[in-house]
Design brief:
Blueprint: E1 5-7, E2 29-36, H1 39-52, E3 57-59, E4 68-73, H2 78-100, E5 106-111, H3 112-124, E6 130-132, H4 140-148, E7 155-156, H5 161-167, E8 178-182, E9 184-185, H6 196-199, E10 204-205, H7 208-220, E11 225-229, E12 237-240, E13 243-246, H8 247-255, E14 262-266, H9 275-283, E15 290-292, H10 300-305, H11 312-325, E16 330-337, H12 344-357, E17 361-366, H13 384-408, E18 413-421, E19 427-431, E20 437-441, E21 450-458, E22 462-467
Parallel strand pairs: 2-3, 2-4, 4-5, 5-6, 6-7, 8-11, 11-14, 15-16, 16-17, 20-22
Antiparallel strand pairs: 1-2, 9-10, 12-13, 18-19, 18-21, 19-20, 21-22
Helix pairs in contact: 8-9, 9-11, 12-13
The structure holds 5'-deoxyadenosine and iron/sulfur cluster.
């Protein structure tokens, strides 16, 4: 999923000029946002669309007809960066074609590639009108206005996290009963393979009060499930008055908001799984029994070389404590194979760790050399074909575990949050507490709420159920 480009469809009313823009007297303009990478970027794209709405921008799914195209990029692996350059090439063709008929297309590059390579992008791709780093989204409307005048500062990739959170509009337009809520940015962990500490900057936690305000607003608009986001979300330590709250304290307060029935958070670092957070998993029913806790590798030697600050043993202890607090917790992880110096034995240790934990799902990646990170200079880089082979073996094992986990749910009944229509007629689609997709036959009127479902089967990636009330 991290490798795929996701297109965000927000309020797609662009090509209907009859609909007058609500927030301003400006004519409606078409906005196309292409999102790459993590959920943090998906969230940021939604916020950018919110910021641009008052300027008259409405989402379209047709990049070739857009007045403004935003590529919200991800820098975490090299492939993603290359995809951005090839997408810019495609956009340039559209831009040139529109210019022939006197129309202007503005191309903006946002996200982590913008942060890390802003100047390089402007040099390599003059068709790009502006570059905006993750900390400067609140300035997007102003930058767009400047680009329209083709004067002034076109580059804004500075680190000003406090300003960013403060300046984003608190009014959000949720798209259904689930929403992301950004509570933390950046990371101080400096894993030796990772660009995040350089692209997103130092760890910064958003203040408690503005988070609660935003969550209340979302709940009033029908949001039932919140996913709290941050690169290192369980390191959260936000201020309220003179006090500092942990993630566990924040979760307990969010759980009290009327309408909020489910809470998740992602992504966590194993060494920040504090006792109070583990306890909250046992005590707060709104906290969903699914934890994404990346371990990266099962070899202590490689963990050390990655500067992960935890060992296989401490990771397993944390998982044991989580399972004690919340016996039905499902676990997910990220893995990197082919990190410099990884031997066949190190890789076998990873396979062994996966077998001993039993995951509900996991993302696995081939190590990608990121210039500027300490690991990129390490000797003993693993040959690409060796890493490919390990990745295949790991992914096969994870898939097997994912199917086994899904199978355990067949015959069980639990609440499903219905989020939209299913693919087939008469079907609705929802989410289980363990983040599985669930299809059931049912009326659209159930979308937006939680309803009890009995699971009768599983497909490769989802569950099939029947509504209990309908039995
Ligand atoms: N190479 C491969 N995978 C990486 N990740 C981060 N940096 C790299 C890299 N250089 C993966 C990690 C992380 C996830 C978001 O992306 O597994 O947890
Ligand atoms: Fe990157 Fe490590 Fe921070 Fe995760 S914890 S964002 S992998 S530096």
């Amino acid at each position: 999923m991290h490798e795929e480009a996701i297109t965000i469809h927000i309020d797609p009313v662009v090509s209907a000029p009859k609909i007058a823009p609500t927030d301003s007297a400006l004519p409606t303009k078409a906005l196309f946002i292409q999102t790459y990478g993590c959920q943090m970027n998906v969230y940021d794209s939604e916020r950018m669309a919110d910021l641009l709405r008052p300027l008259g921008y409405r989402a379209t799914d047709k990049p070739d007809q857009a007045d403004l195209v935003v590529l919200n990029t991800c820098h975490i692996r090299e492939k993603a960066t290359e995809k951005v350059y090839s997408e810019i090439g495609r956009l340039k063709a559209h831009k040139d074609r529109l210019a022939l008929v006197g129309k202007k297309m503005t191309i903006a590059i946002a996200g982590c590639v913008a942060q890390a390579q802003g100047e390089e992008i402007m040099r390599r791709a003059p068709c790009v009108d502006l570059v905006v780093g993750p900390q400067a989204y609140h300035k997007l409307p102003e930058l767009i206005a400047q680009a329209a005048r083709t004067t002034g500062e076109r580059l804004d990739t500075r680190f000003e996290a406090v300003e960013k959170f403060d300046a984003l509009p608190s009014k959000r337009t949720p798209d259904g009963p689930t929403a992301f809520l950004s509570i933390q940015e950046g990371c101080d962990k400096f894993c030796t393979f990772c660009v995040v500490p350089y692209t997103r900057g130092a760890e910064f936690s958003r203040g408690v009060d503005s988070i609660l305000l935003e969550a209340e607003g979302l709940a009033r608009q029908g949001v039932r499930e919140l996913t709290l986001l941050g690169q290192n979300v369980n390191a959260y330590h936000g201020q309220t008055g003179h006090k500092t709250w942990s993630l566990a304290q924040l979760v307990r307060a969010l759980a009290k908001i009327d309408g909020i029935e489910r809470i998740r958070y992602t992504t966590s670092h194993p060494s920040d799984m504090s006792d109070d957070l583990i306890e909250a998993h046992g005590e707060v029913p709104e906290l969903m029994p699914y934890l994404h806790l990346p371990v990266q590798t099962g070899s202590n030697k490689i963990l050390k070389a990655m500067n992960r600050k935890h060992s296989v043993e401490t990771y397993l202890e944390t998982i044991a404590a989580m399972r004690k607090a919340r016996p039905d917790i499902a676990l997910a992880s990220d893995f990197i194979v082919g990190f410099p110096g990884e031997t066949e034995q190190d890789f076998e240790d990873t396979m062994e760790l996966v077998r001993s934990v039993g995951y509900a799902g996991a993302y696995s990646f081939k190590y990608s050399r990121r210039p500027g990170t300490p690991a990129s200079d390490l000797p003993e880089q693993v040959p690409s074909d060796v890493a490919d082979n390990r990745l295949q073996r790991l992914q096969a094992l994870i898939l097997e575990q994912q199917r086994a986990f899904n199978e355990t749910k067949v015959g069980q009944s639990f609440d499903v949050l219905f989020t939209g229509p299913g693919r087939n007629a008469g079907q609705i689609l929802g989410r289980s507490p363990w983040l599985q997709s669930v299809h059931a036959q049912g009326p659209h009127s159930l979308i937006g709420g939680l309803h009890r479902v009995r699971i009768i089967g599983q497909m490769s990636n989802s569950l099939t159920g029947v509504l209990v009330d309908a039995i």
